[in-house]
Design goal:
Elements (H helix, E strand, L loop, with lengths): L2 H20 L16 H4 L3 H18 L9 H34 L11 H8 L18 H11 L1 H7 L5 H21 L10 H20 L3
Helix pairs in contact: 1-3, 3-9, 4-6, 6-9, 8-9
């Protein structure tokens, strides 16, 4: 356990929460307008990026096998899904009930259109909705980050295989490539790094976490 990282995770979670509470979303209307905003809170989406990096670092620290040994991938997946899926699926069903109730009361005819479709629901149910570059949210919009994390868990052995070991020059070179990818996303996306629903943020940031853990192995004790 890394106590400083635990404190950092709390800060990142609160930062993301403040983004959703205080950010003035376009078309939100007066009922959702809290009336308080700041540049700091507006950039709370970066807390998700911090989580992705931390996730790569912590999982590599806990599960990266020593040279010559193999990762028990099936046991790893069982442990990860037991940790994330119960709360995730409860939130998904709660949001689905809320969307259906809203559609029934307001007769907004949103069901079956856009993100509120049966195929979209099943993609979210199996945590596959964020397995793409980026895209709009679905029944439980914020659940996309959990789906993206699930991608990292499923392909975790590939991240470990690609990341160099005990070679600082190669580690730094790959880290620069990951940062360059993020910079490209930041510069080419109209939403900058706040774009949701895909792997454009998860893959380079999770890899950065794995690389940081591998770099830690090269440091003197």
């Amino acid at each position: 356990h890394f106590m400083p990282l635990t404190s950092l995770r709390l800060f990142l979670a609160l930062w993301v929460l403040c983004r959703h509470w205080f950010y003035r979303y376009e078309g939100s209307g007066p009922l959702l307008e809290i009336g308080f905003s700041s540049t700091f809170f507006d950039h709370g989406y970066l807390g998700v990026d911090g989580f992705f990096v931390l996730s790569g670092f912590i999982l590599a620290h806990n599960y990266d096998p020593s040279p010559g040994r193999k990762l028990d991938w099936s046991a790893f997946l069982v442990a990860r899904i037991a940790r994330i899926y119960p709360v995730y699926v409860v939130c998904l069903f709660v949001m689905a009930v809320a969307v259906i109730a809203r559609d029934t009361v307001l007769q907004s005819d949103t069901l079956g259109s856009g993100s509120y479709s049966a195929p979209g629901f099943f993609l979210e149910l199996f945590m596959l909705n964020a397995w793409r570059y980026a895209g709009a949210g679905g029944w439980n919009d914020v659940g996309w980050s959990v789906s993206a994390e699930w991608f990292a868990y499923v392909w975790f052995p590939i991240f470990l295989l690609v990341a160099p070991r005990l070679n600082r020059k190669r580690l730094f070179s790959m880290a620069v490539c990951m940062v360059a990818i993020l910079a490209t996303v930041e510069l080419t996306s109209s939403d900058h790094l706040s774009l949701s629903g895909g792997l454009a943020r998860l893959v380079p940031e999770f890899m950065l976490g794995v690389l940081l853990c591998r770099l830690r192995e090269t440091l003197p004790n």
